[in-house]
Amino acid sequence: MLKLKRPRRPNGLKQRSKDELVILGEPGSNGWPKFKDDFWQSLKPNFMKAQYQKCGYCEIQVSAHGDVEHYRPKSEVQKLDAEGTELANSRRLKGRKRPVITEKGYWWLAYEWENYLLACAICNQKYKSALFPVAPARAVRNHQKFIAQDPRKRDLRKEKPLLINPFEKDLDPYDHFEFLKSGVIKARDNDPRGKETIRVCGLRRISLTRQRGPRAVEIWDDALDFLLARNNTNLLKRIATGIYFAGHEVNLYAGMVRIIFKQVTFLDWTDLESLIEQEGWMPIVKEKIKIATAIT
After folding, report:
1. Judgement on whether residues 100 and 184 belong to the same structural domain of the protein
2. What pTM, to 2 d.p., does this model score?
3. Whether residue 31 is found in the same domain as residue 164
4. In this structure, is residue 1 part of a structural domain?
5. Mean pLDDT, the chain cut into blocks of 10 residues (296 residues total)
6. Region label for 134, one of left (φ > 0), alpha (ψ between -120 and 50) or beta (otherwise)
């Protein structure tokens, strides 16, 4: 996962959100109101650009099948009882259990700009769906079907989301995640937010780990070479600019690259950036970025 900067809210969207919420009304005995999916799906280009066409959770490339996803689910909340297993040589998911535990979700945030991010269909539909674990745990409800209390507006400041949002202001993914050389992701020091984010979004799924693997091996080795090349300017330039390019926002798994770099070198990403700027190597990186993002 990579820390992201939320794009600027489009002009007029705040009022449109308020208007749609008035039309929606509060859920009552007459049944659940109908949400307007086209409202948030029309905002997809904004998030595609801000997230460099990558999923906010797993960082794979997002195509036309990506979703503008509700961080806090709008119509119900589920509980993850079994993570399930992605079958080998397939993306089919077997044995994942996520029963509905509330009657209502965060319905008043259905049209809220701050509740949106771009996610791939795999993370959003197959794994996360309406999962949203919080601490402390949701209050128990004495109901035959819905075992937890519905979310309430006044409780937002009290609950601590365990699912990490890449748009969080003070987020440092390194605090929550670590990677093995094989590309397998783990919760750093059993961090509860890292652990739940991995479970909820399926960030340890076989297909994703296999895609990350070659990049993880490459960066792990390059980070070690970086430490050994400090007295060889030409070699250091090649390695440092290569790592910095790999960890640039435009590239897949840039968040993993930055975490591995710090794991191996104990240096922050800003330390690498400062080195490249001080040595005058940034034009090399910018040229690589220009080539990589060129439209043919």
Report:
1. no
2. 0.93
3. yes
4. no
5. 96 96 76 83 94 96 88 96 84 90 94 97 95 95 89 93 97 98 97 98 95 97 95 95 97 97 97 97 94 73
6. beta
